[in-house]
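Quick start: what a row looks like.
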Amino acid sequence: MADGHLTEVPLESVYSGVVTLRGFRIVLFLGELNGLAIWSTDVGNAYLEAYTSEKVYILAGKEFGDRAGHILIIRKALYGLRSSGARWHDRLAEVLREMGFFPCRAEPDIWMRPAKDRSKYEYVAVYVDDLALALEEPLEFLEILEKKYSFKLKGSGPISFHLGMDFARDEDGTLYFTPKRYVEKILSNYERLFGEQPKKIYHSPLEKGDHPELDDSELLDDEDTKKYQSMIGSLQWAVTIGRLDIMPAVVTLSSFRVAPRNGHLERAKRVFGYLARMKTAAIRIRTEEPDYSDLPDPQYDWAKSVYGEVREETPPDAPEPLGRYVTTTHFFDANLMHCAVTGRAVTGALHLVNKTPLEWFCKKQSTVETATYGSEFNAARTCVEQIIDLRTTLRYLGVPIRERSYMFGDNESMVNSASQVHSRLHKRHNMLSYHRVREAIAAKMVHLSHVPGSGNPADILSKHWGYSDIWHLLRPLLFWKFDTKDA
């Protein structure tokens, strides 16, 4: 281990990227969709497989025998050097290119190549030295890494644990992932911090309609503030790896990390109690396409509107689409006056590829709206922008996607304003969101439909919800227990 902090800052970039968690989930989905083997492996002492670009030397000690006292030049990218991460990243990129892979333009740490029969793509998702593989013949790939490039691999085999997630297959062979082991780990840390287990009496992360921003209890001391910050950090990773049900609570409580109060700590403890009670959540990789043939589809002549003959812009340098088609589905919602202090609403959005939830979003809106109509349009605009991002990413991954994405919101007034060609906007400050959503509809990129509030799963991501209101939506997403695969 080198003391890189003692060396000069290199003039060259030392940045080393990793695959996003969304990108990793997409690779899992595409592997299952196209019948590839899903494996994982870990490259041991990965940095030492690369050579450093820094000028580093040591004065040999007695352990070097006859060379004691000599100046020895370091050639390998030792752990701790400033540039070692980037050098390993470059070395692995060189190896993958030699094996016929090329990086995805939208996800540079997902490497892809056409399968031997050119009917689909194979993928390697890179997170530093942890590789997730979606390949036809993963053993052949691993043998090349070991024999030709002398990589020391460990933990190779069908994916079972990766980036804090456990993987397994249910009774019908469907792959699913769950952060249960990670949840158990943070529950153990909770017990170490407070000397007791969290109370398993809660059926929701926070009380329905709670407003933590109105809490006026005493400020925490330094020690409890550090505990609170540690708890929030661990909950944020839980959200990232699959616990979308606690996202609104974590987003809200995260805003008090600098100066939390006793009431905020008690609420964080409640979230841990909820996880302790509901720790079996898992997401199934369901690859069948949804059928939206029965949705109303009124035909409007948008060419005579202000949008003209608009069409979706597609990347001209995307690879040839190979494999099975996918349909994307998107639910969005806004919670007006979510923050009673600032008046800001919250946007929640849930994105599914075929029937698999692959991305979830919850964030305070940047403007204050005086009516639900405006906050819903802001949420719809955010959802459209995320749809464009997802569709572009899928295209750069060589995925054939259907012409339209299906988008659902529960505010009928907003849905009608966006989807009817002759609607008029009476609130000028919503103009940009209004036109962004309508142009996507005019381009036939998005089909927008109304769904009752009781049937909108984005409610899970926009509100502090109650168990009885949400369970029928939450259960098919996370708590199916192998018996709701047809839900």
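That is the whole record. Confidence is low (pLDDT under 50) at residues 482-487. The chain is about 30% helix and 20% strand.
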